[in-house]
């Protein structure tokens, strides 16, 4: 099953989660949006976002605009946040507007920002939980 992991990460937190998921599923690499090549016939896209002033970054929104069901069939959304994970819901709705099947379950965890907020997050437990999520979604579609 052709699987990609893409993310938008300003501070590196969401990137860490994306890389853990890619490692678990043996996807060659996780890549920041927009990717070097647009996805084609991707069966499962894991799409990750941080949240910035209540929203996903505009680069993420722009990237989703380029998608369609020939590019991506199913998507699972994940993210890191300071305490409020509403960017995930925004990303889910934008994907659904494109006709893409969006998996209900999502993964989110806290991510550090400024100097001291959520220090050491995501931590090794978060990375483990992200891998469990990725495996579960992948296996549910493969079955
Ligand atoms: C400029 C800025 C704005 C942020 N706004 C929010 C916010 O509105 N809500 C929230 O929960 N977290 C907010 N955060 C925290 C980030 O979403 C959190 O640190 C996340 O892990 C960032 O992901 P990244 O490191 O992948 O960019 C903000 C962080 C920054 C730097």
Structure, explained:
The N and C termini lie close together (11 Å). Helix 2 (58-65) links the parallel strand 3 and strand 4. Strands 1, 2, 3, 4, 5 and 6 form a six-stranded parallel β-sheet that branches. It is built from four helices and six strands; from the N terminus they run βαββαβαββα. The protein has one domain: 3-Layer(aba) Sandwich (Rossmann fold). With 143 residues, the protein is an alpha/beta fold.
Report low-confidence residues grouped into runs of 5 or more.
none
CATH level 4 superfamily: Flavodoxin domain
Global Rg: 14 Å
Question: What is the overall pLDDT average?
Answer: 97
Overview in brief:
With 143 residues, the protein is α/β, with parallel strands linked by helices. It contains 4 helices and 6 strands, in the order E-H-E-E-H-E-H-E-E-H.
């Amino acid at each position: 099953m052709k699987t990609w992991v893409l993310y938008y990460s300003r501070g590196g937190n969401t990137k860490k989660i994306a890389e853990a998921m890619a490692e678990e599923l043996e996807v060659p690499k996780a890549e920041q949006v927009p990717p070097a090549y647009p996805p084609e016939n991707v069966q499962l896209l894991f799409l990750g976002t941080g949240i910035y002033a209540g929203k996903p970054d505009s680069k993420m929104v722009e990237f989703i605009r380029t998608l369609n069901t020939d590019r991506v069939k199913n998507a699972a959304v994940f993210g890191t946040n300071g305490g409020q994970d509403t960017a995930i819901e925004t990303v889910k709705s934008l994907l659904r507007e494109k006709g893409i099947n969006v998996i209900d379950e999502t993964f989110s965890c806290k991510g550090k920002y400024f100097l001291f907020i959520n220090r050491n997050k995501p931590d090794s437990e978060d990375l483990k939980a992200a891998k469990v999520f990725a495996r579960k979604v992948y296996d549910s579609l493969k079955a």
